[in-house]
Write a structure and sequence with these properties.
Number of strands: 8
CATH superfamily of the largest domain: Outer membrane efflux proteins (OEP)
Strand order of the largest sheet: 2-5-7-8
Radius of gyration: 40 Å
Helix content: 55-70%
CATH architecture of the largest domain: Up-down Bundle
CATH topology of the largest domain: Outer membrane efflux proteins (OEP)
Shape: elongated
Number of domains: 2
Order of helices and strands: HEHHEEEEHHEHHEEHH
Length: 447
C-alpha cells in the first residue's frame, strides 16, 4: 500500500510539474533568432564549419615535421644455426661446424623525423582546404536563410489558423442566432421551411470548417516547434497578429533592390564548385612534378641472451642517419594525361553551370519581385472585397428578415462573405511569405 501511494504521489507531482511548464512567447524576430541557434539543420551546419577548420589544419599538418618512434623486441625461441668451415675453429678441413650468430634477445628503439620539402599536390591541398572551409560557410549561410524562411512560413501559418478559427467561431455564433430566430419565425408560419434548411446547411459547413481549422492550428504549432528546435508539444504563444505582421512586411523599396546575382548564396555556392574544379585540375597537373622529402632518424640497439634491457649494466649501441628522397614521375602510360583531360572537362561543365545559374537566378529574382508586388496588390484588393462582402451580407440579412429576399440569396451572400474572409487571410500570409522568398533569393534577410 505504501509503494502504491508513493507511485500515485510521484505521478501527481509529475503531472503538476508538466501543467506548470512555462509557456514560451515569441515575436517573429525572436522565433528566427531562436531557430538559428537551436534548429537541427543550423546546428549541424555550424558543426560542418568546425569540421572544415579541423580538416584545413589536417591538410596543413601533412607538410609540417612528422615525428614517429618505434620499439621492436625480438626473442628467438630457437635461434637460427649457420654452417661454417670447421677449420676456422681448429677442426679438420672439409668438415663444417654449426654456429649461432647474435644473441637470443634484442631490442631496437628508433625515432624518425620526416619533413616534406616540395610536393605540388600539397600546395593544391592547402588551397582546397581553404575552399572547403568557404563552401561550409556558404552552406551555413544558405541553411540559415532557409531556416529563417521556414520560421516565417510556420509563424504565418499559425496566425492564419488562429485567425481562421476565430472568424469561424464568430460566424458560427451569428449563424446559430440567425437559425434560432428563423426557427421562431417558421414556427409562427411566417417563413418557409426551406429558409431554416438553408441556414442549417450553412451552419453545418461552418462547423466542419471550424473543426478542421482547430486541427490545422494544432499541426501548425507542432510544425513551428520542429522548425525552432523545440519539443513537439511545447506550449508557445505568438505575440504578433497577422494583420500587423503583414503591414510591417510591406516594403516597396525592396522591389527596387539591385538584382545583384553575385551576392546570392546560390551563385556563391556555384562559384565554389567552379573553384574546386579548378583546384582538381591543378592537382592532376601537379602529379607530374617531382616530390622531395628529407628525413633524420636515430636509435639504440640492445643485445642479450637474457632479458636485461632494464638493467643499468645493459649495453646499448646508438646509430643515426640522415637523407633525402626525390621521386620523379616519368611515364604513366598516359594515365596522368587522361586524368588531366577529365579534370578539364569537369571544369568546363562547372563554368557552364555557373553561367546557367546566373541567368536562372536573375529570372527567379524577377519572378519573386513580381509575386511580391502582386501579393501586396492582392492584399489591398481582398481587404476591399471583404469590406464589400460584409456590407452585402448585412443588407441581405436585413432583406431576409423583412421578407424582401429569399434564404437562398442570404446563403449566397454569407458564402461570399466567408470566402472573402479566407481570401483576405491568405492574401496577408502571401505578403509575408513572398517577401521572405524575395529576401532569401537576394540574400538580404534584414530588410
Amino acid at each position: 500500500m505504501y509503494r502504491y501511494l508513493s507511485l500515485v504521489f510521484i505521478f501527481c507531482i509529475s503531472s503538476w510539474s508538466y501543467s506548470q511548464a512555462p509557456v514560451q512567447q515569441f515575436s517573429l524576430q525572436q522565433a528566427i533568432d531562436y531557430a538559428l541557434e537551436n534548429n537541427r539543420s543550423s546546428k549541424n551546419a555550424l558543426r560542418d564549419i568546425e569540421a572544415a577548420k579541423k580538416q584545413k589544419w589536417e591538410a596543413t599538418s601533412t607538410g609540417l615535421p612528422q615525428i614517429s618512434a618505434s620499439v621492436d623486441y625480438q626473442n628467438f625461441i630457437k635461434q637460427q644455426v649457420s654452417i661454417v668451415p670447421a677449420e676456422f675453429f681448429g677442426g679438420d678441413p672439409g668438415e663444417f661446424a654449426e654456429v649461432i650468430f647474435g644473441t637470443k634477445q634484442n631490442v631496437n628503439a628508433t625515432a624518425t623525423l620526416n619533413q616534406l620539402i616540395f610536393d605540388g599536390s600539397y600546395i593544391v591541398g592547402l588551397q582546397s582546404a581553404k575552399v572547403f572551409l568557404e563552401i561550409s560557410k556558404n552552406a551555413k549561410e544558405k541553411t540559415d536563410l532557409e531556416v529563417r524562411k521556414s520560421v516565417i512560413d510556420a509563424y504565418g501559418n499559425i496566425l492564419l489558423a488562429q485567425e481562421s478559427e476565430t472568424i469561424l467561431e464568430r460566424n458560427k455564433e451569428i449563424l446559430q442566432e440567425n437559425l434560432n430566430e428563423t426557427l421562431k419565425i417558421y414556427e409562427n408560419g411566417l417563413t418557409e421551411e426551406e429558409s431554416v434548411e438553408q441556414l442549417q446547411i450553412t451552419l453545418s459547413g461552418i462547423e466542419s470548417n471550424l473543426k478542421n481549422a482547430t486541427r490545422l492550428k494544432h499541426i501548425a504549432f507542432q510544425m513551428f516547434n520542429i522548425v525552432l528546435g523545440l519539443d513537439l508539444d511545447t506550449k508557445v504563444t505568438l505575440t504578433e497578429s497577422l494583420e500587423d505582421l503583414t503591414l510591417t512586411n510591406i516594403n516597396l523599396e525592396l522591389l527596387e533592390a539591385t538584382e545583384d546575382v553575385e551576392n546570392t548564396i546560390d551563385y556563391k555556392i556555384a562559384k565554389n564548385d567552379k573553384v574546386s574544379k579548378e583546384l582538381l585540375l591543378k592537382l592532376e597537373k601537379s602529379k607530374a612534378l617531382p616530390t622531395l622529402s628529407g628525413f633524420i632518424n636515430g636509435g639504440y640497439l640492445g643485445f642479450s641472451n637474457d632479458f636485461t634491457f632494464f638493467d643499468s649494466s645493459q649495453d646499448w649501441s646508438g646509430f643515426s642517419l640522415a637523407g633525402i628522397s626525390l621521386n620523379i614521375p616519368i611515364f604513366s602510360s598516359l594515365g596522368r594525361s587522361a586524368a588531366t583531360q577529365r579534370a578539364e572537362i569537369n571544369l568546363d561543365k562547372a563554368e557552364e553551370d555557373l553561367n546557367f545559374i546566373e541567368q536562372q537566378l536573375a529570372l527567379q529574382i524577377s519572378t519573386a519581385k513580381s509575386n511580391y508586388q502582386f501579393s501586396i496588390e492582392e492584399f489591398e484588393n481582398k481587404k476591399l472585397n471583404l469590406s464589400l462582402a460584409k456590407r452585402i451580407e448585412s443588407k441581405n440579412q436585413t432583406k431576409f428578415y423583412e421578407g424582401i429576399s429569399t434564404s437562398f440569396e442570404l446563403r449566397q451572400a454569407q458564402t461570399q462573405l466567408y470566402s472573402a474572409q479566407q481570401e483576405y487571410l491568405q492574401a496577408m500570409l502571401n505578403v509575408i511569405s513572398n517577401k521572405a522568398e524575395l529576401e532569401t533569393l537576394l540574400n538580404t534577410p534584414n530588410n
